Amino acid sequence: MKAELGISTDFAGESGKLEEIEEALRKISEAGFTHIHWCHEWDGDYIYSPYEMLQIREWMDRYGLKAKGLHASKGSVRNVNVQCGHYRRDYTSDWEYNRKAGVDLIKNRVDLAQCLGAGEIVLHLYCPHLSMRTDLQLKDRYYAQVKRSFDELQPYCMEKGVKICIENLFDIPEKYVLGQWDWLLKEYLPEYMGICLDAGHGYMVWRERLPELIRKYRDRIYAVHLHDNIGSVDFHLLPGDGQMDWKKVMQELAGSAYQLPLVLEVNSCEESAEEFLKRAFAAGERLQGYYEDALKK
Fold it and tell me: For the Xylose isomerase-like TIM barrel domain, which residue ranges apply (predicted)?
């Protein structure tokens, strides 16, 4: 019996052409994947219509696919490392209308998750760390706005049965990522707030410490992005094509709160989609084997 496995829907990039989106789902299914991690419009301020949500769900049903989470958007595209103006949708904004618009954007993804049958959304939480170096009061002001947004989202998410999972990022200093996790996991209920472990990002920042960090936060890991790299560039390679010790990663993940299936968040390069998905599924099966071996110990 083949393993249940998930893969991100944007493995070959994001197309706005509906026929190509449906075709990608068909190819995912034919490659053996049972689940998708919806990643289209993971960034920016696009709002899904309820009719689009139903269309995606109809395609999933047509090809026998289920959803293992989806990637929500932090809001309007902007320079996240500095505070330099305000943007239309930004749940961290100190302009109230823009902050609430950012909250509405996340609610839209919660609605999409519920429609697709997913139990969690993945969210980026950047902070303007470069500006925080010179404005020593900015950190408190910034996270006060973040808290307002998460406080407002909590009853909505709880009612819909959808958790928010904060992803570890590679392009902000480690102390901010871990500080955010420590604060949020203490502040909010496990039924509402958790972690998305991005293994590739983790390897870039923590290298050999990655299994240790998985162990530390294991009780709140509800989502995963599994991909490989060589430790310096966010390539989103297939597991095994980089330098990560996947046996150690799976050993720790198997002892966490994470519930299968595993999810690959990988990028196809020059090969055909069919060939890439075939290799991706094989890579996922290897990880599944490591995971199951760890459970037996």
Answer: 25-268
